[in-house]
Write a structure and sequence with these properties.
Blueprint lengths: L2 H24 L9 E7 L3 E3 L2 E3 L3 E8 L3 H32 L6 H16 L4 H60 L7 H17 L2 E5 L5 E5 L3 E5 L2 E2 L1 E5 L9 E5 L7 E2 L7 H36 L2 E2 L10 E2 L4 E4 L10 E4 L10 E5 L4 E5 L4 E3 L2 E2 L6 E4 L2 E4 L11 E5 L4 H4 L1 E2 L10 E2 L1 E6 L5 E7 L15 E6 L4 E5 L11 E7 L11 E6 L4 E4 L2 E4 L5 E6 L2 E6 L7 E4 L1 E7 L5 E6 L2 E6 L7 E6 L8 H8 L12 H41 L3 H36 L1
Antiparallel strand pairs: 1-4, 2-3, 5-6, 6-7, 7-8, 9-10, 10-11, 12-24, 13-23, 14-22, 15-21, 16-17, 16-22, 17-18, 19-20, 20-21, 25-39, 26-38, 27-28, 27-39, 28-36, 29-34, 30-31, 30-35, 31-32, 33-34, 37-38
GO molecular function: structural molecule activity
Keywords: Bacterial flagellum, Cell projection, Cilium, Flagellum, Secreted
Family: Belongs to the flagella basal body rod proteins family.
């Protein structure tokens, strides 16, 4: 091997080194560029006699200074930071929305209860009632406003999810195309470094969107997987992700993977984590879903409780109070894969048993199973006594009669509380309809130790409050039987237009309350006959009959021969010793504590014509301190819990954002130290390679001189 060839090999090698150094300098600001280095190795030596003579240098490869482990760490840190950043951004918005006095619930809730107290101070004041009506509407409006603002955040999340998925699909297609180019242009195992850099840059952008895993193949192509091993890129092929309603929840579109052998996308939402997409999904489920469900639970419990309490009193017109709020409908949605679009009818059985959760109803092929999605637990269902197709659990009443065609694995999403805050409406428009007065009054005339502790209108659906329920009742204790006896307020029906207006005991000592008494109407003489006594029909319309220690008022004119029986009902309750005995009459319940004497008399009568009666509105005001939410929290306490939960998540997301930002910076710095272009180093290399190139050229010149000398010697 000649000196010329040795010099020529050096000249070529350092020319490549200079070109590579120039390429590094030119791409110093190129995103994702990894610096390159020419790897030089000596050529095979030449054996001359007993020794070996060097023959020059070869360029082994142009190496890309990159480490898969470091790059994978950068992608992981990038995915974590992107997820935490998006969660923190939305959490801060939601936290500000709920905590701000101008947009939050707490001030409006306080104003509402303050208005109740003002009405309790003067139930007849029209101004106070108008303020209460206004505050009631404001409270319902604030529930709606907060939920609407949360819905707006949900729409932003869904819009950002859709955009991110479109970008991810584009990145996946780019990786597939780069795979094809890399496979085609890889020679002797030496890939094109710049294409690898481009592909890694795209992979980092993918990692910003979602957690990914890559697997390198022998031909330098890669497969990319997301979620639980779902393929996004396989060689030169990319799988498309969709964003549509796959779960049945119209407010939460799902991420679908379109596989070649499936006509419909496969729902992979629950497997997708990390990156911007994972952070958005977590924001939707952990922040928005929980906040709206908790807010809806508060709205439902509040509305149901006030409807109940208003129904236990009398309004300014002397009528039984009606509902203050209209309870919202329950959202029920069939799965897109169900055999039919039919849905069960779901209503509220008992709002106090509700939870802040969505539910999934699943058909096993033989029966229905209800799962509480907040903790993935199975709800114990009881069968309604009147219909085996009606199931009851967690405060819900589920009528499955419409699901006769259901097949195994059919599912339905049930959302009792999700939109309850938005749909809450005030039903009254007249402030006089606030039932501020108690529905009934109780009094006692007794010598024993028994006393009345509580009188309330019945909340039992089997013992409803009606106008007839408000007729006075007399309760007498019979020591002989150790039982309370209630004079029936369901008087014998009278033909014609006569009705019983009231009954009361005048003298408990003379009143014969244990013997049925007949009151007969004599049409010939227009008189009522009670035993030997007669009472003339009053032309004004109301006839008062007083006999045997009691007074009965009849309104209207009965037909001839009508007999009204005044009867006694026995309550199956023994005398308290000294526990509380609850006496249940038509439409009312009375608690008596202590030991009564024989013949002690307790009376229950309609609380009418008492304009200053504020007992029922005081009960409404006391709701402020009641633990309405599953027996654990008051309305304000429930809202405070919601604020605390959102605040905790916000702070956690902020800490995660900051810590992952530090970790990402460290990983990027480590990558930069290996793969980044150092201009000072490249300048030194340029000078070194230039000198080496000049020296190699000098070797060639020397070889030429030697050759010329040799030619001159032989001429």
């Amino acid at each position: 091997m000649s000196v010329l060839s040795t010099g020529l090999s050096g000249l070529q090698a350092f020319q490549r080194a200079l070109s590579t150094t120039g390429h590094n300098i030119a791409n110093a600001a190129t995103e994702g560029y990894s610096r390159q280095r020419v790897e030089l190795v000596p050529k095979d030596p030449l054996r001359l006699g007993g020794s070996y003579l060097g023959t020059g240098v070869n360029v082994q490869t142009i190496r890309r200074l990159q480490d898969d482990l470091i790059d994978n760490q950068v992608r992981t840190r990038l995915s974590d930071h992107s997820s935490a950043s998006i969660r923190a951004a939305y959490a801060e918005r939601i936290d500000n929305l709920l905590a701000d006095e101008s947009t939050g619930l707490a001030p409006t809730l306080e104003n509402f209860f303050s208005a109740l107290q003002d009405v309790a101070s003067d139930p007849t004041a029209p101004a106070a009632r108008l303020v209460l009506l206004d505050q009631t509407e404001s409270l319902a409006g604030r529930f709606e406003s907060i939920n609407t603002r949360l819905d707006e955040q949900r729409q932003l999340v869904n819009g950002q999810l859709e955009n991110s998925l479109e970008e991810l699909n584009q990145y996946a297609q780019s990786v597939a195309e780069l795979n094809e180019q890399i496979a085609a242009r890889t020679t002797d195992g030496h890939p094109i470094n710049d294409l690898l850099d481009t592909r890694d840059t795209v992979l980092r952008k993918m990692a910003e969107k979602v957690d990914i895993a890559r697997v390198t193949q022998d031909n330098n192509t890669i497969h990319v997987f997301i979620g639980n091993g779902q393929p996004l890129v396989v060689g030169s092929g990319a799988t498309e992700l969709s964003f549509s309603n796959l779960s049945g929840d119209p407010a939460n579109p799902s991420i679908g993977l379109k596989l070649p052998h499936n006509e419909e996308p496969v729902n992979i939402t629950r497997f997708v984590t990390g990156g911007e997409i994972g952070g958005l999904l977590e924001t939707r489920t952990e922040l928005l879903d929980k906040a709206q469900n908790q807010l809806g639970l508060m709205a439902l419990n509040m509305a149901s409780r006030f409807n109940e309490q208003n129904g236990l009193g009398l309004d300014q017109d002397g009528e039984i109070g009606g509902d203050l709020f209209e309870l919202p409908d329950i959202g029920v949605y069939p799965s897109m894969r169900n055999s039919a679009d039919t849905v069960p009818t779901v209503t509220f059985e008992d709002t106090s048993d509700l939870t802040a959760s969505d539910y999934q109803l699943y058909y096993t092929g033989s029966n229905f199973q209800l799962t509480r999605l907040s903790d993935d637990s199975t709800v114990t269902l009881t069968v309604d006594a009147t219909d085996p197709d009606i199931l009851i659990g967690d405060g819900l009443r589920i009528d499955t009669n419409a699901l006769t065609g259901a097949v195994q694995r059919d599912t339905w999403l049930i959302q009792p509380t999700r939109n309850a805050a938005t749909q809450l409406e005030v039903t009254i428009t007249d402030p006089a309809k606030f039932a501020t007065a108690s529905g009934a009054l109780a009094d006692s005339l007794n010598t024993g130790e028994a006393r009345l502790t509580d009188l309330r209108m019945s909340t039992d659906a089997g013992n409803p409050v009606t106008t007839a329920s408000y007729l006075p009742a007399a309760i007498v204790f019979d020591a002989g039987s150790n039982e309370f006896n209630v004079l029936s307020t369901s008087y014998g029906a009278a033909a014609g237009s006569a009705t019983v207006e009231s009954f009361r005991v005048l003298d408990k000592n003379d009143a014969d309350l244990f013997t049925p008494i007949a009151v007969e109407f004599d049409a010939t003489h227009n008189q009522f006959v009670v035993g030997q006594e007669r009472f003339a029909l009053d032309s004004t319309g109301t006839t008062t009959i007083q006999a045997n220690g009691w007074e009965l008022k009849l309104q209207g004119t009965p037909t001839a021969g009508t007999v009204l029986d005044v009867n006694v009902n026995t309550i199956a309750a023994t005398a308290p010793q000294p526990a509380v005995t609850t006496l249940i009459g038509p439409g009312w319940e009375l608690d008596i504590k202590g030991t009564p004497d024989d013949g002690d008399l307790f009376t229950v009568e309609l609380s009418k014509d008492r304009p200053g009666d504020n007992r029922n509105v005081l009960e409404m005001a006391d709701v402020q301190g009641e633990r309405l939410l599953q027996g654990r929290a008051t309305l304000q306490g429930g809202y405070d819990t919601l604020l605390a939960d959102v605040g905790t998540q916000t702070r956690g997301a902020q800490i995660s954002r900051d810590s992952t930002g530090v970790a990402l910076a460290a990983a990027q710095e480590e990558r930069e130290s290996l793969s980044g272009v150092n201009l000072d180093e490249e300048a030194a290399n340029m000078l070194r390679f230039q000198q080496a190139y000049q020296a190699a050229a000098q070797i060639i010149a020397t070889s030429n001189t030697m050759f010329e000398a040799l030619l001159g010697a032989v001429r």
